[in-house]
UniProtKB/TrEMBL annotation:
One of its GO terms (molecular function) is metalloendopeptidase activity. It comes from Linnemannia exigua. Residues 1-23 have a biased composition (Polar residues). Pfam families: Peptidase_M76. This is Mitochondrial inner membrane protease ATP23. It is found in: Mitochondrion inner membrane. It is an enzyme of class 3 (hydrolase). Residues 1-45 are annotated as: Disordered. Its EC number is 3.4.24.-. The lineage of its organism: Eukaryota, Fungi, Fungi incertae sedis, Mucoromycota, Mortierellomycotina.
Amino acid sequence: MATQTQDALSSQPVTQASQTLAPSSPAAVTGTQGGSSEKEAKEKKAFERWTKTLSLITGIGLSKEEFQEEVDKIDRKQCELRKEQLIKTSPGVRFMMNNLVKSGCPLTKNMLECGPCDNTKSGGFSKDHGILLCQNGFFSKKHQEHTMIHEMIHMYDHCVFNMDWDNLRHHACSEIRAAALSGDCNWSREVRRGFYTFTKQHQECVKRRATLSVQGNPKCPSRDAAEKAVNAVFESCYNDTRPFDEFY
């Protein structure tokens, strides 16, 4: 035993103290095994995250339903995170929330929900349920910010004015105001959509966006009817910037 220990320690003399310390104590063994086990657990988790990420990118190993479920989770998490950040930091969002409180219609967090939508929408307002943010419909945080302000303007109009959403002119007026005041028709947004002009770009965008929204009203029989409703109220509604002093 002494010879083996001396060989292992480059033939150093074996003292009584070194002989006492040479055998590994149970505590030392346990600590080593625990560290190894903890390391293996971390490596396993890292590998599982890697394979899950790979599955999401490639779709391999997941059914269509499982893949969509994972995508929905990621979209919702990002939407909720941005929502919380914008409520705290966006001047436009905070301004609208304060004015909704002043108008007697405070917007609570459970009235501002993230959820999946079809690919044609980024948000919506319901007088009965509040605001829906389309978690799969945003290409940037700024896009989500504009959408939140847009839908808050609809909520403000419903609270402050005697709105009849089945009346196409009423609907058109709120859509004109929301498109004009939310930032939805900023130059950069229009360029991204492939629309840009050098004269009356903002007005043209507002008319186009409002017409599309009114056209989706179940009470609207045609695009022509939507255009007529928008044109009939455009002048007065475009110039009504309440509660803003000017276009946001």
